[in-house]
Amino acid sequence: MYIYKDRNKGNVIRRYYKYQENDFIQPILGENGILGGDFFAVAANGEYDSSTVCWKAFDNNSSTKWAAPSHTFPDNEAYIIMYNPLPIKVMSFDIQNSFTSGEVVTKLSILASNDNKQWLDISEPITIQDTTALNWNKIKLQNDNYYKYYKINLLEDVQATTPSFTNIKINGLVKNAIISDKNDFDFFRDKFVQNSGWANIQREKKYFKYRQEEFVQPELTENGMLGGSTFAVFASSEYSGSYQAYMAFDTSTSSEWAARGIPSDLNYIIYNPDPLYITEIEVTNRTDEENITSYRIEGAGRDKNWVALSDVVTNDKTSAYDKWKIVVGTPDYYNYYKISILTAVGNVGITNLKITGKTRNPIETSETDYDYSVDVPTVKLINKIGYRKG
Question: What is the pLDDT of residues 142-191, one digit of tens each?
Fold first, then answer.
């Protein structure tokens, strides 16, 4: 909240602010900035020569690239760091392979930090599926937090020489402050504001109860972002751009999500911004040779503390277009549900997923009949050292 007083008119004007999530618009670099400065900037722990400096992977030009010095993996590190003065919640990276086939990276991991000192692993090692020169790969993250720094750490390349990227694009959200009202704000600038006086922050209790409603499953024509404001899904592996995770929710039997074989830790995650109570998930197979034969289910809130909802479950419905049900023994409402796929007939392919479940929406109620209460901030201008009360 921001409060100031017009000295001529003696009026007190109160301004309240809240955070709004907006898509991150990545700058196109024509030169580099400085890590920790006022603008987007990048850095690498090495560059092959002056024509392959790290910012060339952010110039939106497919004829330039960042290339690391000659490396022998895993003995030497190679990485590139991205910095933004406003923290970003990165949901995925689009990475364009080098235009030189012998320099295509095949394995990497993602780390994040807010001080460029303490780094947190936010991904397992990720294998690049498409290693064709100049082709794009989408690196998806299960990330609910905002960070100023992200590091792409290279773990392997094809020929252990000079790994490189032609282009890197960040997909994520930033928080911007917008003017709000006193019943709906996230922060105030300071308890004292020049030319106004001192602010006294008080709290008012409001009471809410849950109203249960049937979940209406959206039909996806594109994917959202885990942790965002809309329904979204995530697959730890996708066979190609033609078999993406969201295609299991587009209601068409001519499209599918598919993964090649059973990569380690193969999972499919369903996310909803409002917690869901899912009772079952109906699965429609695609072909005779792409079917799940064993799996287990987990659930989690926004904190990503996963809770086991099943032991290992087997499935014998493996014919093309067979419909079978995953029974979810959920004890609670969760924002995330994870299907961990353990075994399959050949590859994995799902043409449709259909959720049966409920949402709970809070409605304001009375102190005598409520499920939970919240303290709503209110603000008053008070006397202090010569300032009169507004």
Answer: 888 999 999 999 887 544 478 899 999 999 999 877 777 666 666 554 44
| 179 falls within a domain | no
- 168 shares a domain with 216: no
Sign of CA dihedral 271, 272, 278, 283: negative
The total domain count for the chain is: 2
Name 97's Cβ contacts closer than 8 Å, sequence gap at least 6.
104, 105, 128, 130, 131, 132, 133, 134, 135, 136, 137, 165, 166
Rounded Cα distance between 171 and 26, Å, is 8
CA distance 29 to 215: 44
pTM value > 0.70: no
User: Per-residue confidence at 110, pLDDT binned at 50, 70, 90?
Assistant: very high
- Contacts with 254 (C-beta within 8 Å, 6 or more apart), sequence order: 351
Do 234 and 354 belong to one domain?
yes
Q: What b/e string do you get for 128-148 counting C-beta neighbours within 10 Å, with b at 16 or more?
A: bbebeebbebbbbbbbbebbb
Task: Summarize pLDDT for 42-54 with one digit per residue, the tens.
Answer: 999 888 888 999 9
Pick from 221, 224, 289, 227: nearest CA to 259: 289
- Asked whether residue 33 falls in the same domain as residue 170, the answer is yes
243 neighbors 252 (Cβ within 8 angstroms): no
Same domain, 306 and 239: yes
217 and 352 both lie in a single domain: yes
For residue 94, give its domain range: 21-174
Average pLDDT, the chain: 83
Beta-bridge mates of residue 66: 165
CA atoms lying within 13 Å on the CB side of residue 337: 30
Amino acid at site 359: T
- Name the residue with higher pLDDT: 25 or 291: 25
Query: Which residues, listed in sequence order, are joined to residue 340 by a DSSP beta bridge?
Result: 267, 296
- The region that residue 114 occupies, defined by phi over 0 for left and psi between -120 and 50 for alpha, beta otherwise, is alpha
pLDDT at 78: 87
169 and 25, same domain (yes or no): yes
Domain for residue 383, yes or no?
Answer: no
Q: Residues of the chain with pLDDT > 90: what percent? A: 38
Question: Residue 155 and residue 335: Cα distance in Å, rounded?
Answer: 32
Whole-angstrom distance, CA of residue 54 vs CA of residue 81:
9
